[in-house]
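Course assignment 3, question 2. Fill in each field.
Student: A.L.
Task: Predict the tertiary structure for the chain below.
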Amino acid sequence: MTMRPPVSNLPIVFDNVRYVVRALPILDAVSLTLSLGAPTVLIGPNGAGKTTLLAVAMGLIEPSDGRVTFGGRAHMPPLRRAFMRQRPTMLRRSVAANIKYALATSAVPRSEWPARIVELLSLVGLSELGERPARRLSGGEQQRLALARALARDPEVLFLDEPTASLDPAATKAIEDVVRAIAARNIKVVMSTHDLGEARRLAGEVVLMHRGRVVESGPADDFFNSPKTQEARRFVAGELLV
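Answer field:
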């Protein structure tokens, strides 16, 4: 009997996608391909459309126009996609129980949950805190727990919306280390950030957004060393895009 290869979400292809709210385009004619490989980092000012692009790629909202395909398929259920919001809510239970709750919505067999919880706590550096109430963690620890919950779904693609916003340098480094470990597992990471330094440290590919459009995208080294557009040159130089 021939075994079929597992269905993949990748590449995720945006084809002239628009998302409009009250006649205001939040995404405007976005064409972009997200492929397997090093993290793709979305940068750009507030209101550029980064969070909305992540939500459309996750399948949380439908485009007003255009088309999004997942591995060549439209309307693919988000079974192996996960999304971590900028300010995730911690459930009123222990760290380990937060992960257990996430596992209950995954395809992981119940018999494997204890080992999976141990593995995820280790991956995000919270092995000693499994029984601590999640809401008593520091901000950085809560972000790492949110990453573990997202990974409980065994995603092929992980979307992160500003995962280090408002964190101090030590907590930011801890999150970035986890992101690198996730990417090393061949999980496609697509994340947004305002921090150009973070984009330089993590990105394999950079996508600059402004006013709902993709202004420039490409390999991170090319983007930072020789940006092609005026907006990209200004942004890399630290100027404000308005």
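Instructor remarks: The radius of gyration is 18 Å. Residues 38 and 184 are 8 Å apart (CA to CA).
Grade: pending
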